[in-house]
Amino acid sequence: MNSVELIGRLVRDPDVRYTSGSQMAVASFTIAIDRPQRQDGGERQTDFPRITVFGRQAETCEKYLKKGRLVAIQGRIQTGSYQNKNGETVYTTDVVANRVEFIDWGGQNGQGGQGYQRDGYQQQAAPAPQQAQAPQTSQPDDDMPDSFEAIDEDVPF
């Protein structure tokens, strides 16, 4: 079985490119995941797995994910290798995501978490309905769905 589930914060904005033949979007980004602290008070450690997302979900990641956002990833581990400029073999390990969930609903143009809807299998972004609204003076976290709680953690980068 090759299955992985991760929750972490983006180290930088997603990088999106398109395949040459089918013009399919491919998004790549790295997340920071804290390892559980040891009971002996050892030094805090963090892992930085690289995530790869394909298709429409890659375009959604490019549009809505930013550095520091908290995401949940479900996918599989994929290893590979290539020859670098010096002729040395470089081994890679990536997480190929088949599902990306936006956990941190931080404000997008003052709209907070509005505009997100859930289909059966993956988080998709939809435009927020255009309605006359009074200016929002609340914090972005006030628009967060009731099922989520704000997390006050230090980002490890």
Q: What descriptors fit this protein?
A:
157 residues, globular, mainly beta, OB fold (Dihydrolipoamide Acetyltransferase, E2P), 1 helix
Layout of SSEs?
Blueprint: E1 4-10, E2 15-18, E3 25-34, E4 46-47, E5 50-54, H1 56-64, E6 70-83, E7 89-102, E8 116-118, E9 123-125
Parallel strand pairs: 5-7
Antiparallel strand pairs: 1-3, 1-6, 2-3, 3-4, 3-5, 6-7, 8-9
Q: Supply the number of structural domains.
A: 1
What is the C-alpha radius of gyration, as a whole number of Å? 18 Å
Distance between the amino and carboxyl termini: 32 Å
* CATH architectural group: Beta Barrel
Helicity range = under 10%
Report strand order across the widest sheet: 1-3-5-7-6
Q: Give me the strand/helix succession.
A: EEEEEHEEEE
CATH domain class: Mainly Beta
Q: What's the number of extended β-strand segments?
A: 9
CATH topological fold name? OB fold (Dihydrolipoamide Acetyltransferase, E2P)
Low-confidence stretches: 108-141
Tell me what portion of residues adopts beta-strand conformation. 35-45%
- CATH H-level superfamily: Nucleic acid-binding proteins
3D shape: globular
Task: Describe, in plain words, how this protein is organized in 3D.
The structure is a single chain. The protein has a single domain (4-143), classed as Beta Barrel (OB fold (Dihydrolipoamide Acetyltransferase, E2P)). Helices cover 6% and strands 39% of the residues. It has one helix at residues 56-64, and strands at residues 4-10, 15-18, 25-34, 46-47, 50-54, 70-83, 89-102, 116-118, 123-125. A hairpin with a 4-residue loop joins β8 and β9 (123-125).
